[in-house]
Amino acid sequence: MVSSLLQQVMRHENSSILELDGKEVSEFTPSKPREKWLRKRTHVKIRNVTANHRVNDAVFTEDGQQVVNGRFMYGPLDMVTLTGEKVDIHIMTQPPSGEWVYFDTELTNSSGRISYVIPDSKRLGIGVYPVKMVVRGDHTFADSYLTVLPRGAEFVVFSIDGSFAASVSIMGSDPKVRAGAVDVVRHWQDLGYLIIYVTGRPDMQKQRVVAWLSQHNFPHGIVSFCDGLVHDPLRHKANFLKTLICEAHMKVFAGYGSTKDISVYSSIGLSPSHIYIVGRPTKKMQHQCQFITDGYAAHLSQLEYGHRSRPAKTGGSRMVLRKGSFGLGTNSDFLRKRNHLLRTISSQPAPSSPTGSHAPGHAHGHARPERTQSQSESERERVERGQRSMSIAASCWGRSGSTKLEHGGLGASRAPGGGHGGASRAREVGGTGPGGK
């Protein structure tokens, strides 16, 4: 009963209602009505199992090929594959206007995959674009983001399990966030770097992991997963980062992780002075990296006042990555259900300095240091919007069931963290994290 109520509440609070300049933009509605399954067996196969669709986050250059890759499965362990069925592809081509554009319809192959190449006539320019792929048969869907960058854009990479969480178990309980981790990630985002999150977990856990990032209000970024269960996740991390450097022509500036990630970051050309490792220092590795021994708060103080960080050098300074997080961001003009990484084509340079809103003096942290200032700001915004959202409640609650957009892909994973109202409720019933249900 509690689970059912929470699903309804979260579905309402995270409905795709945007607000732009005080005007409401209607929620996403599938462009194509539901149809019968192309294969008769499909109806029987997916009965009593929930969707676990996912679409890979991707990064491209302006002149490179732009491809959307997704996989459509059902069941928590990918027990059922959606084979030979229609999937409609929608992209918000002008965020944050909220106008979803239907691009095409593709059929899933025998492994439930779709690989759609965006035609040259519809090529996307510099920016960050939400993607929604909807299954025609039941209107379950998967969300993702396509990021188009100029050549030479810089990024900072974080290993989720190695640098943020205390637990690395795949099916364990919800791990706690290391104190000050969110502030450090936001520091780099404020300087104009693209945030890259890497993990050795299989992509079937995308919903769970992104929900955990959302719950703890981590800044928005590209999240990379392994393609299924692999025997060498470190090699996957290295290959993904090499692809960003070689094919997307990006530059890595710093990397965070555990001692296992040192070899990964060294293989992509990071110098030891820009490899930050969480854990106890060892004599064997002390010359291969910089150990974070006094916690993230002290490390953030060193970054801000020790001149160890600088503003990102984006190609042509045409792209500004605004503040945004997997939870509720600080930009009230674009209240999407999970994050607000927006694109602008501008002649303005990237921000030249951090916001200075951190508290580096709390080197050791006190009462729940993971509650960052950005989170408290979001709490105030949530209270201010509380009365305004009540007027929409009745109509949203009704529409949420009419479109049958059930939990699937990134949209489902965002539900627990779409703002702090949902996040707090998720924590009250045990939380939803990389290891928890």
From TrEMBL:
Comp. bias regions, Basic and acidic residues: 367-387
Entry GO terms, CC: cytoplasm
Domain called LNS2/PITP: residue spans: 156-287
Biased composition (Polar residues): 346-355
GO molecular function: phosphatidylcholine binding; phosphatidylcholine transporter activity; phosphatidylinositol binding; phosphatidylinositol transfer activity
Location of the region described as Disordered in the Swiss-Prot/TrEMBL record: 346-437
Superkingdom of the source species: Eukaryota
Stretches with biased composition (Gly residues): 408-422
PANTHER family referenced in this protein's UniProt entry, alphabetically: PHOSPHATIDYLINOSITOL TRANSFER PROTEIN, PROTEIN RETINAL DEGENERATION B
Protein's UniProt name: LNS2/PITP domain-containing protein
Organism taxonomic ancestry: Eukaryota, Metazoa, Chordata, Craniata, Vertebrata
